[in-house]
Amino acid sequence: RAKAQGGNRLAVFDAEANAREITRYGLTTRLPAALEEGEFFLEYQPLVALGDGRVMGAEALVRWRHPQQGVLGPDRFVALAEQTGLIVPLGYWVLEQACRQARAWQLELEQGAPRINVNLSVRQARNPGLVNDVARILKETELDASSLHLEITESALIGAEDQALDALRELTDMGIGLALDDFGTGYSNLSYLRRIPVHTLKIDRSFISGLQHPDAPGNPRDEKIVAGLVSLAHTLDLAVTVEGVETELQAERMRALQCETAQGWYFARPGPPDRITALCAAGADRWTGGACA
Ligand code: C2E
Ligand code: MG
Ligand code: MG
Ligand code: MG
After folding, report:
1. What pTM was computed for the model?
2. What was the ipTM of the complex prediction?
3. Centroid of ligand 4 to alpha carbon of 209 (angstroms)
4. How many C-beta atoms lie closer than 10 Å to residue 35's C-beta?
5. Residue 43: CB within 6 Å of ligand 1?
6. Ligand 2 centroid to 154 CA: how many Å?
């Protein structure tokens, strides 16, 4: 009987694995058409200055409106696009769209327009045309380089060749900001911090979830890691952004640790561009010591 059950379980498992494989295959083969048909779109999540509650930036996050499966998040398709190389044209589409939106915010809001943060994958950083294409996109969208920050994950930098690091250096020479995304999750040997001019460390949300939460006691070790990362960043004259702030308590902890900028559901979930316009137009002080709007 146990054997039969085991056998069944194996069959179910096989069927599931198989279904997953078929889905992956289906998504992968559909990616190029999706780009051509305009099925991708961007959402924007505010980056909030913890000092005064100002929305000083927004991160562009890609989504896929799949005709049969509904809206898919990047965790479903970015890795697939990376494997097939489609991430390169998709990445340029994202970059252009995001820069155009950032320029639109500048024209719409007389002052206090947010800068735009765009995620860059390893494969894009390795692409020889990167520097020229970014320069061209900035020119075409009439966005100044300092209004664009690129986010690259720590793990992407670890295996990066000199050529990719040179490209990142050229981009920062143009005035573009560089943020290290998901900081603390890679094998941080930190040596690349000497080789490329990073401006911001984005502390990964896995550490923040260990901070005090009304439903769960804080993890004292996570508190110490976060405090250490913030102080490391400041020693190196880097700014700090924390991801994944979900509660007022967490926002307060991070403010107390002198962290400059935060991002997370407590402030706002990713949403359409008008939401950013409205938050910017509403001005600062929204989240300081008050309830979340
Ligand atoms: P990321 O760059 O670290 O982006 C932050 C992710 O955390 C986003 O997930 C965001 O929706 C989510 N998040 C924000 N605040 C909270 C919070 O308070 N709690 C929780 N639980 N989650 C929060 P999303 O949009 O699913 O994106 C996942 C990842 O996909 C991104 O991680 C980024 O690495 C990648 N990605 C997104 N857009 C692009 C893109 O245009 N190009 C590339 N290459 N990668 C992208
Ligand atoms: Mg990011
Ligand atoms: Mg991140
Ligand atoms: Mg992340």
Report:
1. 0.91
2. 0.97
3. 12
4. 16
5. no
6. 11
